[in-house]
Design brief:
2 helices
Length: about 55
């Protein structure tokens, strides 16, 4: 696994964790921010052929 792939997967995992925490805390604004970031990261992964599971990395 190259550094780009490893870094991208790490960012996705961290963002998923942050999204989960925001949901647990009921912070609707932060949920939207984190979901947008996660969508962007998953799109970037798809564009570069990096496989990401739907429920974590």
């Amino acid at each position: 696994m190259d550094a780009f792939t490893a870094g991208l997967l790490q960012r996705i995992k961290a963002t998923e964790s942050d999204l989960s925490r925001a949901r647990d805390e009921g912070d609707e604004f932060l949920v939207e921010v984190e979901q947008g970031e996660l969508d962007d990261l998953r799109r970037l992964a798809a564009e570069h052929g990096v496989e990401v599971s739907l429920h974590g990395v």
